[in-house]
Amino acid sequence: MRVVREESGKLFMYSTKPFKRECTWGFKDKNTIVVVLSDSLFPEVKWEDKGPRELILK
User: Fold this and answer.
1) What is the pTM assigned to this prediction?
2) In a designed cystine with 16, which of 12, 32, 33, 53 is the match (CB 3.0 to 4.6 A)?
């Protein structure tokens, strides 16, 4: 799972690695699962990040 923040501040979790567009993130795999997360989670994840953050569940 990967966590990203869009330019608008909205936070998303993707089941596959997304790619960065102009102001949002996108995906190519039609089987990708996208979950909207609370914007208050993962404050360290920023739009300015070069790539998605991998989320490792323990």
Assistant:
1) 0.89
2) 32
| Residue 4, Cβ density class (10 Å: 0-12 exposed, 13-18 middle, ≥19 buried) | buried
Task: Tell me the three state secondary structure of residue 8.
Answer: coil
Q: Do 26 and 19 meet the contact criterion of CB atoms below 8 Å apart?
A: yes
Amino acid at the residue 55: L
Edge-to-edge strands of the sheet including 34-37?
Answer: 34-37, 11-14, 2-5, 53-54
